[in-house]
Amino acid sequence: MTTVLKLGGSVVTAKDEPETVDREALADAADAVADADDELIVVHGGGSFGHPHAAAHAVSDTEGTHDATGVREIHDAMGELNSAVVEALQDRGVSALPVRPLSVASRDDDGTTTFPGEPIATMLGEGFVPVTHGDVVAQAGAGATILSGDEIVTRLARQLDANRVGVCSTVPGVLDDDGRVIDRISDFETVASALGDSEATDVTGGMAGKVRALLELGTPASVFGPAELGAFLSGDRPGTLVHREQ
Ligand code: IP8
């Protein structure tokens, strides 16, 4: 059983404090991952590490830069967060290893992303837990743009034929207009008004962008909060199940 797990950047960092890991939240998440039996790929977001640097250099998933210093700043900040996540996992006996997207992924000039699955598949075969993250990547004709952790999740889930996908966010699921968790989403139109316009939420798509991308996957995906991470990893489907009816 292969599971792709996204740890939201705002789950593992203190979102309003630049480059600050939320040590307690990271410890809780790492404890839950250490207890999991599935073959796992962990993907984390940028939180207070990648996003402030990306904003400072006006880089997004659609706006690129040729400023190598800026690209390095974003990538280095993500490297620090990635080291913290890998270390927290290794401290608990998880065979976690870093996978840095800038060195392996790229985009062509229409924005299509290539993220090779082979290194990850080989790591999994050898019993390692690849830990990758949203990053800045080279894009033909644009310099370098932001590749979100969410896009990596959907790419890798497809390429590696994952059985389960989990997105651990700061909210307990996808919320309706009254703030209640929606149990199941099988098409975007029925939840569009509650989610708002994806362009307006954040540069890498916000919840609307996540739901749209997850609906395109054949694999059922769960969106849930940190309190439910252990339940998800032990096989439950907490929060919101996002799966298009076939
Ligand atoms: O937080 C963005 O990843 P996300 C990563 O998953 C950077 O959208 C570098 C801002």
Automatic annotation (TrEMBL):
**GO BP term, example:** terpenoid biosynthetic process
Question: Where substrate is bound, by residue?
Answer: H51, G149
**Record EC number:** 2.7.4.26
Q: Which reaction does it catalyse?
A: isopentenyl phosphate + ATP = isopentenyl diphosphate + ADP
Q: Which family would the database say this protein is a member of?
A: Belongs to the isopentenyl phosphate kinase family.
Where do the Aspartate/glutamate/uridylate kinase domain residues begin and end?
1-216
What organism does the record attribute this protein to? Halapricum desulfuricans
Where does it sit, as one GO cellular component term? cytosol
Q: Which InterPro entries match?
A: AceGlu_kinase-like_sf (IPR036393), Asp/Glu/Uridylate_kinase (IPR001048), Fosfomycin_R_FomA-type (IPR024192)
PANTHER family xrefs: GLUTAMATE 5-KINASE (PTHR43654), ISOPENTENYL PHOSPHATE KINASE (PTHR43654:SF1)
Enumerate the UniProt keywords alphabetically.
Answer: ATP-binding, Isoprene biosynthesis, Kinase, Nucleotide-binding, Transferase
- Carries keyword Flavoprotein? no
Role this protein plays: Catalyzes the phosphorylation of isopentenyl phosphate (IP) to isopentenyl diphosphate (IPP). Functions in an alternate mevalonate (MVA) pathway leading to IPP, a key precursor for the biosynthesis of isoprenoid compounds such as archaeal membrane lipids.
Q: Where does ATP bind?
A: K6, L7, G8, G9, S10, G46, G47, G206, K210
Q: What quaternary arrangement does the UniProt entry report?
A: Homodimer.
Feature type site, description Transition state stabilizer? K15
Q: Under which name does UniProt file this protein?
A: Isopentenyl phosphate kinase
Which terms does the record give in the GO molecular function aspect?
ATP binding; isopentenyl phosphate kinase activity; kinase activity
Origin superkingdom: Archaea
